[in-house]
Amino acid sequence: MDIKTKDDFLQFIKQIEQKKGYKKPIAFGVAVLDKGQLNTEKTLQARFAHINFEQNYGSAAILLESFMQKGQEIDFNSSEFVGVLEEKDIDFALACFEPFKDEEGHLNIDVLKAAKKHFKANEFAFVCLFEDKEPRSVESVYLKLYLLSSKKAPLRSLNLNGAFGLLANVAWSDDKPIELEYLRKNELELKFSKTYPKIDFVDKFPRFLAHIIPEDNTRVLDTAKVRMGASLAAGTTIMPGAAYVNFNAGTTGACMVEGRISSSVVVGEGSDVGGGASILGVLSGTSGNAISVGKACLLGANSVTGIPLGDNCIVDAGIAVLEGTKIALKDKDELAKLNPNFSFDKELYKGLELANLNGLHFRMNSQTGQIIVALNKKAVKLNEALH
Asked: What is the pTM of this model?
């Protein structure tokens, strides 16, 4: 179809979307791929400069049509599609976008122009998700990690089951993945020629800052402390030392993080994760229950939290509040006012029974060792100058 006007473009999109079986993707993007050094067909990493989530369906239709026009079958009943882009696919799409060529702000067009400029065979792919099911490719895993880290999709909202099995364990050198087997096979030559790469770490996941540009008021003081797939809200500070934020975890507002935010943990605005504090993840003692920490909470240095906390809670330094921890209750009437839907009718509770309640202060009786929960009478406020 010869597309000269925006009406022509819209009509063409309508024709594509009316094809039998066609399905709009929920997310898509164009990725540049890092392939294996030995297995040159294997994708080790996918980089997206712009991703789309529940938007820009016309751009997706054009790119899908480019594959269909050259006879490539697309299974719209599948949860995802990954197609290696040829230069003629990019040319086709840019020709379809001709009516918009003089307009600014069309990021998908800018992506295609950049792909055209830097094109190399087998290095660019069009990746789209039709359903949020277990990922089936490295490319779709990376698309989901980008959706989380760019805050397009909320934490814990995407299916990442099986992602570990799809990603290769590789050596990372200046954010480039290198097959471990390649290093083994070429160790002698690389070392004797003094070209052995500087290995920064070995893992399946890259680092957050290798892919994501944070907000101006977000600070990450050590690149090793945040894994790709984490989400950092504006104003969050990640200190060096014991701090760490895993994938599918992070903050929803400005926070101070000097401890560990494990996978699937979400920390609310204004909270302070103290030095060496640890919030347990779904694989580390929470019976598979994902933990959320509410707004304006304080986790003291070297404390351990294994239950979800509501707003304005404190866990004192050095103590562990776990699902089975026996906790004595104080300030029953005051806590009941803050949590009217909870019945404070016992003197002793297990930690999990107190999950998601507001205004709790967990501390230890220094004489008996008994863990006590009482009304939090302290206001947790971050230093605004630091966030």
From this structure: 0.95
In CATH, what number is assigned to the domain containing residue 246? Answer: 2.160.10.10
From CA 325, how far away is CA 74, in angstroms rounded? 53
Q: How far is CA 99 from CA 10, 111, 385, in A?
A: 11, 17, 47
What is the band of 238 on the pLDDT scale with cuts at 50, 70, 90?
Answer: very high
- Quick check: is 1 in a domain? no
Reported as a single tens digit per residue, the pLDDT across 3-36 is 999 999 999 999 999 999 999 999 999 999 999 9
Is residue 135 a contact partner of residue 144, using CB atoms and an 8 Å limit? yes
Determine whether 104 is an active site residue: no
Of the candidates 65, 139, 179, 258, the residue annotated as catalytic is: 258
> What does the alpha-carbon distance between residue 329 and residue 327 come to, in Å, rounded to a whole number?
6
Whether residues 116 and 177 fall in one domain: no
Cα distance between residue 385 and residue 154, in whole Å: 27
